[in-house]
Structure formats: C-alpha cells, structure tokens
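Quick log. Single chain, no ligands specified.
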Amino acid sequence: MTSSDRRNFLNGTAAGAAAMVGAVAMSASPLSAEAATPPPKPKEKKMHTANHNTFNAKNTAIVLVDHQKATMEWIYSQDKKNVENNLRMLARIGAEVDVPLLITTTLEEQIGLTWEGIQQAAPKQFANRIKRGGTLNCFIDPAFKSAVKNLDRKNLIICGLTTDICLLHTVDSAVKEGYNVIVVADASGSMSKLADDTSFDYFRQIGAFVLSANAAVTELFQDFSTPDGQKVMNINLQEVISKLGK
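-> predicted structure:
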C-alpha cells in the first residue's frame, strides 16, 4: 500500500468512526426531567426530644417508682449506698422545696412498702402514694395516670426500680403521653450493669434525658444564692456528707 493509499484508508476509518458515534448519540433519546432528578429520600421520622431549657423548679415534678423493700435488694448494677443517698435527696427536695413529688408502689403485700429512707424524708408524699395492684407500666394504672396529670407539670424527673422493667415501661409511656422526661440514672438500678446500660440507651433513643441525680437537681436549681437554692444546696451537702460517712 502506498503512502497515499494509507492516508486515505486512515482518513476513511476516522470519518466512519465519527459518523458512527454521531449516529449513536442522535439515536439516544434525551433523559426527561423526571428521569434526570434523583428520587426523593424518604422522610425521616422525627423523634420527640425535650429541650434542657424546659426544665425548672416551676414546671417539673419528681416521680419515684417502686423503691420498695424487696426491689432495693435487687440493686446490683451500681453502688446501692449512692442510690440511697440520691433517693433521700430527691425525696427531701420534694418535701422541703416547692417541687411536686409523687411516690408509687406496686404489689406492696409481696414486695413491701416504700424504702424507709424515702418514708422518713417525705412522710406526707409517702402517705399519699399511688399503690398499684401489679402493673409494671405505671401509666396503665388509672389512679397513677390521673395523679401525674393533676400535678400540672409537663416535665418529669423519674427514677425507679428496676431500670429495665417498671422504670423502662413507665418512661416509655411518659414520653408517648407528651411529657418531657429526665431519667435519674443513679437513683435507679437493676440486677446487672448491662440491664442498666441497655435501658439508658433506650431512654435516649425515645427522647428522654439520662442524668445523674446531681445533674438533674441542678437542672432545676441553677442559682444557689436564692432561698430555694440555699435549701437545695444544704440538702445536697448533707447527703454527700452522709454518703462519705462523715
């Protein structure tokens, strides 16, 4: 093949290839606007989440769930002495400061009365406790549900025994009922750390806060220079001293 023939062959091949590409491009139908737009992402389900700023002493109540003689013996997940001191602190705040306190028990004949430390710290609230007939979820009991509603507080600080049974189901219902909830981790307890940890994870997932007793109390009283703040500070210090055995 001569040089001239070779150039003609290459030129013809290039021209043919270009023509083929053009034909393919012209034959392809353009994408419609709908096809070019990616499908919308499914809407994410927004979970109810409270705002920390909503909790203060004027709009919050404390709820103590099933801290009874037998259930107190089932605390293996954390320091029982620490739980007792925190319960006394919460009960005293409910009794001595203007924060409503609701105490509830279940199956008292089998499980026993409310722990003596709570009885002594808040005798009036203990006398007015809601005695449930056996419900694990407190909100199933009409008297409890009505008592919480009558507190006229949208925010609840809740702790209970055990963390993975009565407390879990009660907090779940409280959130579904539209209450903002702080769970006091170290005023609750169960038979294992794993039971506590999985329950605390669940509380966070449904929109409740999980705090220590000190954090929950100082959420309500952020100024210890006020008269109520002074009361709370003294209660807190007394329980700290008691816990340290001094």
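Residues 3-27 form the longest helix (25 residues).
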